[in-house]
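Input structure tokens:
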């Protein structure tokens, strides 16, 4: 499989993706736990069918110390006992924020309130920014049919 566009060598794409990457990097200072961020990145990518991002974020999460068991259970987090209440709230917000078009009213208040119980305002900003940027990355990759499987840990493209 070959991508419809070469996002990595196109100067316009490089400029746009540089800003997306910078937005994602700014989240680090907000205190959102790294493991929560990786779970969010993976879950949104699964929902959106972005093989490239599923590959990337699975590899990055393993490299950062995440367990195979937890990664295998992200898609079924509701039934899994391996996630904290805070992670569950973040995953629920991720699903609602990623499937925003499916809910006429947007993200339900009760979903937001569950997340707000576990995260500070700065962490909530970081969580929302993470959900928004990964959805943007997913859409870029899915639309251009970016092939998956070749990502190497640390590339951070």
């Amino acid at each position: 499989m070959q991508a419809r566009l070469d996002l990595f060598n196109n100067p316009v794409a490089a400029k746009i993706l540089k800003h997306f990457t910078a937005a994602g990097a700014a989240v680090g200072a907000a205190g959102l736990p790294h493991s929560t961020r990786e779970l969010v990145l993976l879950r949104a990518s699964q929902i959106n069918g972005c093989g490239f991002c599923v590959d990337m974020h699975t590899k990055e999460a393993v490299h950062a110390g995440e367990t195979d068991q937890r990664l295998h259970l992200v898609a079924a987090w509701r039934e899994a006992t391996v996630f904290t209440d805070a992670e569950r709230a973040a995953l629920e917000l991720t699903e609602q924020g990623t499937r925003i078009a499916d809910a006429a009213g947007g993200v339900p208040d009760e979903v937001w309130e569950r997340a707000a119980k576990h995260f500070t305002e700065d962490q909530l900003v970081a969580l929302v920014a993470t959900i928004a940027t990964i959805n943007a990355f997913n859409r870029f990759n899915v639309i251009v049919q970016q092939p998956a499987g070749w990502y190497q840990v640390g590339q951070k493209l």
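The mean pLDDT is 92. The longest helix spans residues 121-144.
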